[in-house]
Write a structure and sequence with these properties.
About 50% of the residues lie in helices and about 10% in strands. By secondary structure, the chain is mostly helical. The protein has a domain of about 110 residues. A 3-stranded antiparallel sheet has the order 2-1-3, sandwiched between helices. Strand 1 and strand 2 form a beta hairpin.
């Protein structure tokens, strides 16, 4: 066994850890920007009538880093007071956030961005030809690809895995 004592290795280790932290922060920023872009796109679409506000408010994203919640959008509360008693009929935001977490927790990648329309009828609305989240998922993917390309041109290499449920 060869033993050697290199001076300054703690500085090298510190520099590497700082570099890794910088890369992780850039990845998180890319995912956050992509998520925010997708949510803004989806919430401003006017292709369907959202009678209770639940469908639109269930749209949002979560970002997981190493299996832990790192960031999220604001999942909003539905806007319509159906019962006339000051209470909302359903909180689409809670449903959306719960679904986004469930999907993200099933992934094993170090970084995960999940953009959802959390109401159980979102897919049925999409099948009728209305854009609820499909356009937003394309938007998120395109934004992320452009931003990652910029990082890759700066000397970093990041691969994106594009999945749909």
């Amino acid at each position: 066994m060869i033993e050697c004592n290199l001076k300054g290795t703690d500085k090298v280790e510190q520099a590497i850890l700082q570099y890794v932290t910088n890369v992780e922060n850039k990845v998180l920023n890319v995912l956050k920007y992509a998520g925010e872009s997708a949510v803004a796109y989806a919430r401003t679409l006017n292709t369907y009538k959202d009678r209770t506000g639940n469908l639109r408010s269930s749209i949002g994203y979560v970002i997981y880093k190493n299996g832990q919640l790192a960031d999220r959008s604001s999942f909003e509360q539905g806007y319509r007071n159906v019962e006339g008693n000051g209470k909302y009929s359903y909180n689409g935001g809670e449903v959306g956030f719960a679904l986004a977490q469930k999907v993200a927790q099933q992934e094993t990648a170090p970084f995960v961005l999940v953009v959802v329309a959390g109401m159980n009828y979102a897919a049925a609305v999409e099948r009728r030809g209305y854009d609820v989240i499909e356009g937003a998922s394309i938007e998120a993917s395109e934004v992320a690809k452009r931003l990652v390309q910029g990082l890759n041109n700066g000397g970093m290499t990041i691969d994106l895995k594009d999945t749909e449920e």
